[in-house]
Amino acid sequence: EADAESLVNALNAVFGAHDGVRAAHTHGFCVKGNFTPTAEAASLSKAPHFNSKTPVNLIGRFSMGGGNPAAPDFQKDNVRGIALHFDIGNGNTTDLLMISAPVFVAKDPDQFLSLLTAVATKDKEKIGAFFQANPNSTRQAQWLNARPVPASFATVNYWGIHAFTFTNAEGKTQVIKYKALPVAGEVGLTDEEAKAKDPDFYRPELAERLAKGPVQFTLTAILGEPGDPVDNPTELWPEDQRKSVTLGTISITGTEDDKTCDAGIFDPTLVVDGIEGPANDTIFPMRSAAYAVSFGRRAK
Ligand code: HEM
């Protein structure tokens, strides 16, 4: 049975164990900025960052999925990530992690461990047999392969994957999924353009963009309806048939020393009053435990 240690070991078996770095989303960099909530955000959640009258400071990190420290930025079938620490005062943060696909590759920790174990063999037959037996694990790559390589971390949509429950000041609850949409619009590269890029092109690209002004995303809550799956992160919600509420604007204003982001973990379970994680999605709590194991190893 999968646990935090076995999952991090399995990530290391696939991508190599590299000293001093994350076991996953290894290739990335740190940024800073702020979040300004809309008036509507408060109608959904009493969380402090959704009710603030002034911009809420944040630290963020953009990353490529997987544990390869040199994961090429032009790879199509890999997710881009954005991780955020919202400063909610008194030294406390609440975190939000999103990836550039609406689904994850496994429905539960055991399936993720089996996937990583199969991939680590590098045996085409074993890997093929895994995906044959676990078609839900192929959805993320299918989704990414049907779209262009993002031209920038600033020009792609990101999803929070898990279903969270918001509670407002009146005690009203609503199940949501987070989605962040780039204010610069979705911009992709042709396969030719992607091929010509440096494997590390995103970092200088973003620095250049930030020199001209903030990089912004509209953070939205897709409103779940009865029957929408809330415990399986490989299941899509029919989001074009769902209402969504704009929660606010994420504004990335500059780069930040990577040490700031490496000093701890971005923890998806670090929520705050007004936000609750999914109760029966077993991936959700396992992430927190696995990130702690990864941190313990890289902080040595
Ligand atoms: C059981 C399933 C999962 C495991 C075992 C896992 C494992 C990891 C590990 C070990 C790290 C590095 C932690 C650190 O050293 O700070 C990480 C980072 C990350 N993961 Fe996961 N992950 C899982 C599911 C997910 C899901 C569903 C998402 C979707 C949002 C996600 C998004 C991210 C992002 C964006 C980062 C980068 C955080 C940063 O920049 O510091 N992961 N993951």
Automatic annotation (TrEMBL):
SUPFAM superfamilies: Heme-dependent catalase-like. One of its GO terms (biological process) is response to hydrogen peroxide. The keyword Heme applies. Keywords: Heme, Iron, Metal-binding, Oxidoreductase, Peroxidase, Signal. The keyword Transport does not apply. Its EC number is 1.11.1.-. PROSITE patterns: CATALASE_3 (PS51402). Belongs to the catalase family. This is Catalase-related peroxidase. It comes from Hyphomicrobium denitrificans (strain ATCC 51888 / DSM 1869 / NCIMB 11706 / TK 0415).
